[in-house]
Amino acid sequence: MAGLNKVVYKLAAAVALAAGLTGCANTLTTNVSNFNQWPNNAQGATYTIAPAPESSSWSELERKTYEGYVAQRLQQQGLRPAAQAAAARMVVDMQVQSRRENIRVTTPTYVPAPYYGPWGWRYDDYWCDDGWMARRVGSMCLVERTTVQAVDVHQLQVRIRDRSQKGAGAEAPAVFESKAEYVGQAPLSSVMSYLVASVFDQFPGKNGEVHRVQFDTDTGLIKKR
């Protein structure tokens, strides 16, 4: 019985690890990096969102939708949309990169264990990792199987420049830069709102911080840390 309990415990631990790496069905995870020198007098400042680059493949409505996500977060931080873009203090631009990658995913699996019977060795394609008796339950072994899965990688970078700090002939300096990345199996349109929320999580954040944000997709809210 002690041996069985040991195997069950190892299986539970392995499953928990796999769940943490791949995410639960109602959880969406992003990784975020943050760099900022946010000015103390920015409350109430006006902003404008720079046009998407010509290389962008977004349609007009798609671009406006994504800009709306960013505008909502900016206004939650006390910034105001400028009546005229040229008069805005803060200039906001966002860049998105999407690609498809193959990654290796390891999951715990029960497979037949080798044993010696009347007809010789059976199931000799599998061996238990810790010795064929250590992780064996009956005629089964707990092993780790590695498979290759295709995933979507979406990265959103938001940068804010402060024109009030611009010197003569110089470009307005960046006062906020944040990048959020999602890796999973979902199109950009379904995760963009989460990426924007991640970029502005705990705004302006700690300079140089890298952290993970988990969302409850049933509510759209960030889970308790």
Secondary structure layout:
Elements: H1 2-22, E1 27-36, E2 46-49, H2 60-76, E3 80-81, E4 90-112, E5 115-117, E6 120-122, E7 136-137, E8 140-162, E9 174-184, H3 188-199, E10 210-216, E11 221-222
Parallel strand pairs: 2-3, 2-4
Antiparallel strand pairs: 1-9, 1-10, 4-8, 5-6, 7-8, 8-9, 10-11
Helix pairs in contact: 2-3
Give a verbal description of the structure.
By secondary structure, the protein is α+β, with helices and mostly antiparallel strands. The protein is built from three helices and eleven strands, in the order H-E-E-H-E-E-E-E-E-E-E-H-E-E. It has helices at 2-22, 60-76, 188-199; strands at residues 27-36, 46-49, 80-81, 90-112, 115-117, 120-122, 136-137, 140-162, 174-184, 210-216, 221-222. Helix 2 (60-76) packs parallel to helix 3 (188-199).
What labels describe this entry?
3 helices, nine-stranded mixed sheet, 225 residues, 11 strands, alpha+beta
Structural class by sheet pairing and helices: alpha+beta
* Helix content percent band: 10-25%
Inertia-based shape: elongated
Number of helices: 3
Mean pLDDT: 80
Radius of gyration: 25 Å
Low-confidence stretches: 1-23, 119-126
Q: Main beta sheet, described?
A: 9 strands, mixed
Strands, count:
11
Helix and strand run? HEEHEEEEEEEHEE
Beta-strand content bin? 35-45%
Distance between the termini: 37 Å
